[in-house]
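Appendix B, example 12.
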Amino acid sequence: MCGIVGYVGDRDASQILLKGLKRLEYRGYDSAGIVLINGGLKYCKGKGKVEKLGKMLKQNALAGTIGIGHTRWATHGEPNDVNSHPHLSESGKIAVVHNGIIENYTSLKKQLIERGRTFQSQTDTEVAAQLLEEIYTTSKGVTFEEAIRLALKQIVGTYGLAIVHTDRPDRIFIARKGSPLLLGIGDDEMFIASDASPIVEYTNKVIYLDDGEMAIVTKDNYEVKTIDDVALTKEVHELAISLDAIEKAGYPHFMLKEIFEQPRSIADCMRGRVNPDNGAIQLGGIEDVLDELVNARRIVIAACGTSWHSGLVGEYLFEYLAKTPVEVEYASEFRYRDPLIGKGDALLVISQSGETADTLAALREAKRRGALTLGICNVVGSTISRETDAGVFTHAGPEIGVASTKAFTAQVVVLMMMALAVGKRKGVLRQEQMLMYTKELAKIPSKVEYILEHIDEPVRKISGLFTYAPNFLYLGRSYNFPVALEGALKLKEISYIHAEGYPAAEMKHGPIALIDEMMPVVVIAATDHTNDKMISNIEEVKARKGRIISIMNDENSDVEDLSEFHISIPSTKDCFSPLLTVIPLQLLSYYIAVNRGCNVDQPRNLAKSVTVE
């Protein structure tokens, strides 16, 4: 993995590909390259940023009207020039870019070497290029399209593939299994990409490939087929995002822009769904299965990373507001332990992109076992949105920063609305309670806006004091324990400071040994029903000279007195507090990373959409 872009038309493909790769930088990568058809295959690739690739293109004066490009996040072979995509066959007539992992590449490579083929790289992707050429050149009467199908049937693993061949210089071949690909339809030109960001400037009409499908794309036509050569008619979708939404809009980083977008993204998530006047929650995406969800024996939530943290908040919400038992699973572990899930259970998967490989695997396993499957994701047309029985979109808008911020709050809002809807349908929540909760939920966007207006500068100053801290500890209780985990993850992701989140009471079962006068401890003390216990935990930290940074409600003077630094936020119902407490933690991690000179939007070793297991 990580990003694919392709173009076939009459324009200069090199500049379209280069701009497309620039828009894919947010996904995280370590090298980049493009290949153009111009007589033969002309390519340029190497370790480093797209900006470096642009300079190489200019020096080499590459041009052409058909080409494919790639940003690579290393899986097989270290990041270097040779391992960069695209990869060419031995003859130099076939070029391939690839997202995903070819799991049986070792055995395929061994067979190809035995047949006399020579490899240049350590990657699994080069195997695809060499295998294609081997089949095409040694199988009598086989067309290149047929060779692709035959090769794909030998490949085990996941792929989003874009392929060009000098024998078919007017077209690009693409195929998908487990790694997203879409086709953008223009006027006498076509675009290929792993997500919409590189092509939204040129067209809003797209076709999403599903697993087991391939397409043959020319400038004025496309054919979509299964790998078994069955022709398909695909629905053309209209993109919901705009070019403005994927620009920085004057902010120094996408992450900061997205933090400050949260009043709007939270409001957009609730728009048309929360009615504080009558206490109603209307979620059209799950209305048809709401009774089945209400009657489920339990809900299992499966997710990864930040989405897993939002799922943990969801566990508290469903159990408190709907009295429904919930288990939260790492999606990456779900299918490997023979999970006890089936008919009568509901699996809820959460993914910003809707393409997370581990989460998709959990979804498919639960479907296979007969469970009701639900999804929460941000991307219309994504695989999760198409494969679940029902679901809810977050409507958070594009999230470009690798470290997720507005996706977390939007996911939590959806979980809150779902829990309220289930609680009401079950009869757990009375009408007066629904009125109270919906009125308070409707106030959240303005409270987040207030926080951003009043704490940005104080957090910036605090962050400057802790730029060189080697470790951080985050403590929370109840609804804010997952927020402690999320705060620690944000700091790790973008500042490279080691940080851990803990339930506050667990501190004395081990982590308290780490606390001394050098240890910053972030305590989230904004939940009324655990406030007294939280104060006791703060006392324990203070007694050991830990440097306390507290996130607290305005009126909580006891916490303020115990803290070296405090950040005050408005009060809300305890169950809604994660939407407010997470905001200061996002800003804290952002400003510490900036002070350390880190690449905030593209942190090392990370990818935005993890489409491999």
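Residues 124 and 378 are 31 Å apart (CA to CA). The mean pLDDT is 90.
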